[in-house]
Write a structure and sequence with these properties.
The chain is mainly α and 153 residues long. α1 packs antiparallel against α3, α2 packs across α3 and α4 packs antiparallel against α5. The model has no long low-confidence stretch (mean pLDDT 94).
Length: 153
């Protein structure tokens, strides 16, 4: 199976990120409706809990959409055969920053929204943040080597 290219895994990821961006925009616009339905289903009657969750989801939705956007842009470049660009290192850096912001938001809101799910989200996004920063640095080094190699030839 082909990994890189429009007909490979990276092409599938590119389409997936684009679909998730569209779905994310729809979900973001309708958060109050599905959150209310979810809390009614769970029989949570606290109005304060609803507003805390609503604020958290709206605040965390922005960096989440940024992660999808940067990921789509990264895969678009990879599919064009342009993996080692400074631009891609920046995309990975901003994925790291956005992930750190989501982690920080959930850490701030943990006292208001007691859930093991919140702790799991914090752990996952801290790890994603660190991976984004490490890969960003690796891409920066690879770009530098590539540029030095092009100058040598």
């Amino acid at each position: 199976m082909k990994i890189i290219g429009r007909k490979g895994v990276s092409g599938i990821l590119s389409i997936l990120f684009l679909l998730l961006l569209i779905a994310g925009a729809v979900i973001y616009a309708t958060i109050p409706f599905w959150l209310k339905g979810y809390l009614d289903w769970r029989k949570v009657e606290s109005v304060q809990y609803y507003y805390d969750m609503l604020l958290l989801l709206y605040l965390a939705g922005i960096p989440a959409m940024a992660i999808l956007w940067q990921s789509w842009r990264l895969m678009r470049n990879v599919n064009k055969g342009k993996a080692f660009l400074r631009e891609n290192a920046r995309y990975l850096f901003w994925i790291g920053v956005s992930s750190a912001v989501i982690s920080l938001l959930f850490i701030i809101f943990i006292p208001h929204i007691l859930s093991i799910f919140s702790v799991v989200i914090v752990i996952i996004f801290i790890l994603l943040s660190l991976i984004g920063f490490v890969l960003s640095e690796l891409f920066t080094i690879a770009v530098r080597y590539k540029e030095e190699n092009e100058l040598t030839i």
